[in-house]
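Q: Could you fold this chain for me?
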Amino acid sequence: MNVGIKNKEQFMKLWTKTYNTHGKPDWSHILPYYSNDIYFKDSIQEIKGIEEFKKMVERLTDRSNELEMIIYNIIMKGKIILFEWEMKLSFGKYPKSSIYGSSRITLDKEGKIKEQRDYYDLWGDIFDNIPWFAKHYRNFMKKKFG
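A: Sure. Below is the predicted structure, expressed as C-alpha cells.
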C-alpha cells in the first residue's frame, strides 16, 4: 500500500485528526505518512529519524492533558505545504493556553513527510497567558528588541 499525501485536503484531515478537542493527541494514523529519515526542527529541538520523532510525540502525549490544533490557512505547492495554526494545550493543573505558529512540510517523491519545520514564539505565547507577567515580558521585549 502506497501511503503518501496527495493534496492539502487529505493533509488537513490527517493533521486535525491527530489533535483532539478533548483528551490526548494520537499520532498513530499519521506516522505512516512520515519518512523513515524525517528531519524535524522547532524552537526547542532538532530531530532526525522516525524513531526519535516517535519518542518526541510520545513525550508530548505523556505531558499534555489536552492538545487541540486549529489550522487557519494552508497552501500546497508541489511538494511543499505551508500552514498557520493555533495549538491549544494544557499541562498538569494549568488551564488551557494557546501557542500560535506556522509549519513548513516538505514531501518526498512518494508523498511522505521528509522534513517538518515548525515556527513559533514559545515563551511569548506562554507568558501572554500569565496575566501578571505578560505586560512586563512584552515591555521588556519592546525595550530590548523593538
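A (continued): The chain has a mean pLDDT of 87.
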